[in-house]
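Incident log, entry 3
Record: U32 family peptidase (433 residues)
Problem: checksum mismatch between cached and fresh output.
Input:
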Amino acid sequence: MKKVELLAPAGDFEKLKIAIEYGADAVYAGVSHFSLRCHSGKEFDYETFKEAVDYAHKKGVKVYATVNSFPFENQLPIVESHIKTLKEIGVDAMIVSTLGVIKKAKEIAPDIDLHLSTQANALNSWDYEAYRDLGIKRIIAARETTLKDLIKIKEKVPDVEIEIFVHGAMCFAYSGRCLLSAVQFGRNPNKGSCANDCRYPYVLYAENPETGTMFKLEEYEDGTYIMNAKDLCLINHIPEILESGVVDSVKIEGRTKAPYYVAVITKAYRDAIDEYYKWKMENGKWKINVEKYMNEILTTKNRGLTDAYLVKRPYERNDTQNLKTSLTYGDYQVSGIVNEDGLTFMCKYKTYPGDELEILLPKNVTISECENEIGKIYQKDGKWYLKLYKIVTANGKELEAVHSGNLNPIKLPFKLPYLTFLRKKVDFSPNGV
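Fresh output:
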């Protein structure tokens, strides 16, 4: 049985490692401003990107390089040089958007696969056939495409791989083609420098052009988030996506998201996919514990969740926007992340002796209960926890507490896997923490 690929974001080298350790089959990342996530592209230079690609390949994970911005004429020589360098680095595929970049990439690097960005908004079998004939191996479906359409498209164009987004931020504009931040800030979203203007609160006014009178319209006291789209979440549709047999890769958005987001979301979808295949093989049917995975997803920051347009047409939806706030906090705060030595962690939130910290482990690792003078690791209600009796730095100094920003590694009572997260349940309500 051919299994679907889980594709996760790698905004920097640490996030690439986290995506791999938490279950990704492939990652996508960018270098320079030719990526549509300009900020995350700056986290890599060519040297570190080569190192990251080699690291991923040693782990059996593919790397897809984003070259999906829309270059101006004076940038073409730089784009050409960029493609040559990516060929030398040895990426597994390049994600591209424009006809010219497709043509040039095929000339320079004919052996590297080309994936068509969702920005190209391919919506039908004619589009898929045309791009296939130009050398595209995989098409990242337009966000507006339905699963029913993808099934029909695959029947007509079976030799093109299909990738879909299953989780992450949604753009207010059609297929992400927005110029709002270019108007307000001079930052071009189609060149990777979106200022996320759709996430801001706006105050609405109504003007009478005959009298010049202007009335302020207030729906909410602090302004209205009239363009703020909820985040995509298709975890409950994983069975029908896989059952369709037409999707080759499921993709998580989030190169600019926090490392914790990458870990939690990657692991949730990895476990859901694996559970589907396990049930399918053992029972001839499918089943997944959606509630368990959704509870994990809700520990991350989000803008509200929607299943968007994969199973319904856009005009049938009225629940894809969050007009009240641009961000909802998850119910957990990251307290720390375990260092490469496995014996210490870096603090990410205030931690006191006696705090109970839940342990979020990478995939396919096991730990045991243990206790010493520093603290103990134990299991409760099917989850792993760490309790520190005292807080001791790697150089032996004992602290009353440790806070985010403290750069001293903090000792663990026993060794934990690299990139394990420690988290604490908190209350983000006005009267909470």
